[in-house]
Amino acid sequence: MSASAGQLRNVGRARRRGRAVAVALCVGWLAPATAGAGIVFREAETVEGAAGNSRQIRQVLAEGEACKVVLEDAGESLLPVGTYILATTVDAFLVDPAGRTIAPLDPTTMVPAASASEPAGSLAATDVVLDLLFEAPGPELLGLPTRHLVYRLRYDDDAADAGEPSRPAPREERHELWVTPWPPGEVAAEAWMKLRLAEDGGPGVERADLREALGQMYGQGFVLRQSIERGARSGAPGTERRIDQRVLREVTSLAWAPVAAAEFERPQGYAHTEFLAPPDGTADAPAAPAAPAREGT
User: Fold this and answer.
1) What is the pLDDT of residues 87-113, one digit of tens each?
2) CA-based, 20 to 30 A from 178: which of 115, 146, 193, 257?
3) Quick check: 235 and 242 in contact, CB under 8 A?
4) How far apart are CA 264 and CA 62, in angstroms?
């Protein structure tokens, strides 16, 4: 998944669209695991693009069908440090402990539930093609062996406003991953994975094929480091691909450790809101953590 699942960023664009996607983080470990152990780790993410540059740090606590992602360094986000996403495989909430508010998110798209059914501006990914371009042993990261993988992901991003014809935009992404094997007996934290796919798949419910392709990549093991290049795809032979955005994610500390059940409980006594209030009470704050802006769409 999943404060993942971007990333508390690109708030202006997210606000204009009336949607935002939850933060999500890459997975890894420090020590040998025992079956059923929780995952606790931190991820640093840097984003460079036309919408601006940002860097954020999040802590992830995940175990089975529960996940909590906490914003530790907000960077350029308007959300306060300590804001977190609490998710299971069936629901998700954005929690602001400082403001004592909790806002429901759509569990599939990770946009605020109040805007998930809005008809204006549908996004669909069609003609999805995933190619493995490179695979080889990678360097040791955090004391763990890795495989180095490079994927090319192609699809058409179809954006259509209500009552208007679709406007397909050919897109291409290059994903470079360094993964380490899951320990024997361990399986991916389901809620965490759902957050990651919601984030990288982008907003819109008609993106199942894109999320499935991303799931094939992330199913290769724990992702310790990742580089993403997103851009427009040209059909002209020999034409250089235009890069709109670069994303670098790296797990900086991680461990297998039991996670107290209380970490995944919804806070009591918080005000339920459709959107989180801005820190200064203005009307221009983001509704939820924003995923990487998908430039050119």
Assistant:
1) 988 889 999 999 999 999 887 777 777
2) 257
3) no
4) 9
Whether 106 is covered by a domain: the verdict is yes
Report the b/e string of 140-172 with b at 16+ CB within 10 A. ebbebebeebebbbebbbbbeeeeeeeebeebb
- Write out the DSSP string of 84-111: EEEEESS-EEEEETTTTEEEEE-TTT-S
Q: Would the CA dihedral through 72, 190, 274, 163 be positive or negative?
A: positive
In a domain, 1, yes or no: no
**Number of domains observed in the structure of the chain:** 1
Structure tokens belonging to residue 57: 């740090």
Q: What is the CA radius of gyration of the chain?
A: 18
Residue 180 in any domain: the answer is yes
**Per-residue pLDDT tens over the stretch 29-61:** 333 334 456 888 999 999 998 778 888 899 999
Q: Which structural domain range is residue 203 located in?
A: 11-272
Whole-number Å distance between alpha carbons of 47 and 212: 24
pTM, two decimals, is 0.75
Contact 168, 251 (CB under 8 A): no
The answer to whether 127 touches 235, Cβ cutoff 8 Å, is no
